[in-house]
Amino acid sequence: MSRTLSPHAALIVVDVQPDFMPGGTLACHQGEAIVPGVDRLLRSRVFSHVVATQDWHPRGHISFASSHPGRAPFEQIALHGQPQTLWPDHCVQGTPGAELHPGIDWTALDAVVRKGSDPAVDSYSGFRENHGPQGARPSTGLAGWLRERGVDEVFVCGLARDICVLWTAQDAVELGVRASLLWDLSRPVTPTSDDATRATLQARGIALIESANLAI
Ligand SMILES: [Zn+2]
């Protein structure tokens, strides 16, 4: 079953950057496999609104294990009262690994939301940073950008399925926007997380669809 897209639907392409691909510093499982499909979707011009997020950290970012002596990547610490996974250094501002992936034609892109620029706060979702020192999650401005364009539905794809894609979709529904996750155009950091991701999507009312079901 294919579906025709409303002009009020937007595509959010999350963190399709070389550092999240095999060979990058924080590779998703088979992350490169989504590149041709994302490229095809952008070239199809089926979405009236297209936004990409770009993880964009300063050197020495607080989410990097290297910023915490004695800690290793993928360990968890408490940060601003919340659990924080420590990551390998990744998507450092201005480095090739932080670019929007060169294998995709980005000319259909309307906006890029850079996230994770605050040295002291991590940022998974395209809508809101993670919890900051004051306990709140600072907005990236994306919800307002979509609202002013009349968008009431988003389709989310990209990397990583179990983290930034999932948090972006969850925030969308929490902020009152319908959300679907394009399963075939996403990949996780941890493949064993897929069952938990599916359960979370179902619990939050987020549709799980394949890009082949879009009318392209
Ligand atoms: Zn990051």
Automatic annotation (TrEMBL):
| Example GO molecular function | metal ion binding
Q: Which residues form the Isochorismatase-like domain?
A: 9-211
The answer to whether keyword Hydrolase applies is: yes
GO BP terms: namely: pyridine nucleotide biosynthetic process
Q: Which UniProt keywords apply?
A: Hydrolase, Metal-binding, Pyridine nucleotide biosynthesis
**Superkingdom as given in the UniProt entry:** Bacteria
- Extract the InterPro entries matched here: Isochorismatase-like_dom, Isochorismatase-like_sf, Isochorismatase_Nicotinamidase
Q: What class of enzyme is it?
A: hydrolase
Q: What is its EC number?
A: 3.5.1.19
Pathway stated in the Swiss-Prot or TrEMBL entry: Cofactor biosynthesis; nicotinate biosynthesis; nicotinate from nicotinamide: step 1/1
Q: Which family does it belong to?
A: Belongs to the isochorismatase family.
By what name is this protein known? nicotinamidase
